[in-house]
Design brief:
The protein has helices at residues 5-18, 27-38, 76-88, 96-103, 109-116, 124-147, 152-162; strands at 42-47, 56-60, 65-70. With 163 residues, the chain is mainly alpha-helical.
Length: 163
Amino acid sequence: MAPDRTEVIRAVDRLFRIASSEEARSLEGLANALSRDRGRPLTIEESAELPVGVFGQWKRNPDNDQILYASWVHAKERTVGHELGHIMLGHIGRPAIELATAFLPESSHELATLMLERNCTHKQEQEEIDAEAFASLLLRRIYNSRTVNHSPIVRSRIDEALG
């Protein structure tokens, strides 16, 4: 299934609408606008503890959100944009069993599966595609605003008109 481009465009547009002009000029500024809009602190941090192959992770804690990116990631902005996409698109995350087996030793996988088994939909792949599309559009709007037009909000309207 192709990503719902309309949903992704609306999410990016909404993020630019809630941001001030100054916030809309950077990824960090947009993250601050999102934090303010949601009424929840949002921090972005480098992490040396993410497992191999995990570029970034959104941690939704009871009273705050964290976006972690691996210390070896070369495209930090893309990774952070992707995780912001998960937040803006209302994604919930991977089922607990996937997380448990990703972090537990192989000898514990069977027990973890037994303890955490539940019926899950297989929409995670689509959520990853949508988050990537969000990051791509978000970064394009930020970077294009620096060279083509100084207002990401105006750039958003131009992108919308041109498709």
